[in-house]
Amino acid sequence: MIDLGLTGRTALVTGGAIGIGLGIAEWLAQAGCAVALVDRDPDALAAAATVVAAHGTAVHTVVADLRVPDAAVAMVDDVVATLGGLDVAVNNVGSLGGRTPTRFLDATPDDLAGIVEQNLLVTTWSCHAEARRMVDDGTAGVIVNVSSGESTRPSVTMPTYGAAKAAINHLTATLAVDLAPHGIRVLAVAPGTTLTPVVRAAFDDATVARYEAAHPLGRLSEPADLGRLVVALASDLGRAVTGQVVFGDNGAHLSRNRPT
Length: 260
Ligand SMILES: NC(=O)c1ccc[n+]([C@@H]2O[C@H](COP(=O)([O-])OP(=O)(O)OC[C@H]3O[C@@H](n4cnc5c(N)ncnc54)[C@H](O)[C@@H]3O)[C@@H](O)[C@H]2O)c1
What we know:
It contains 8 helices and 7 strands; from the N terminus they run E-H-E-H-E-H-E-H-E-H-E-H-H-H-E. It is of the alpha/beta class and 260 residues long. The longest helix has 29 residues, at 109-137. Nicotinamide-adenine-dinucleotide (NAD) binds at residues 15, 17-21, 39-41, 44, 64-67, 92-95, 97, 118, 122, 146, 148, 191, 193-194, 196, 198-199.
């Protein structure tokens, strides 16, 4: 039997109430972690806690809007006080923060700055609080940032999103070097278009088929695909891996542009 080394570990997942974050939380729970779900939506969080707890692990919820810098510190303090430590931190909050994809010339200054805040700044504050706590506690933990396939290729309706995710890739590499002496690994996973309930509701069948055809593997990811990937990287299977951006996108990044 292979021991993944995650049994009895503690994990947090930001934006864990729905979609990819919930898929990751479910897989970490199945791998044996106690899981903290962090989200700004209390109703979705309560429903997600029931789903994750069904895997038989301890579940804790934290309601927070992580755009506030101090919220990340409070989140980590809460998780460590409740679950007894922090071994795996998955920084999954991102997307467009409730905005719709917009061409650069049509975006407002608030759109442009808000998307950078929602992705780069939220991930930065979260990494900062998590890394400080892991170092203070002497925990050789793992931090996984959720990036995007759009970090490496043009997506003209999401210009600052792709740029902010590319900056997250760079932050990931830099922190991997800086935190390596503490035994902390820092990684990023880059989903392609993923059939979360929100994405599936926004795509008609013809759009799903067109997107599938644009992916070398001919399929779109499900949230559980990212869950599998995070478990592999955060577990002992990934113990030699740090600083990498791993694309869980069915090969989408190998094509030059996002389908429109
Ligand atoms: N869905 C996709 O196709 C796709 C593709 C590539 C990358 N991604 C990335 O995957 C991650 C998850 O995306 P998703 O589509 O599963 O879900 P999502 O981004 O739509 O929402 C996930 C959860 O995050 C919470 N949230 C949003 N902003 C928050 C904040 N500031 N503080 C606390 N909680 C907040 C929401 O309440 C929600 O429950 C994001 O980083 C996104 O950029 C998604």
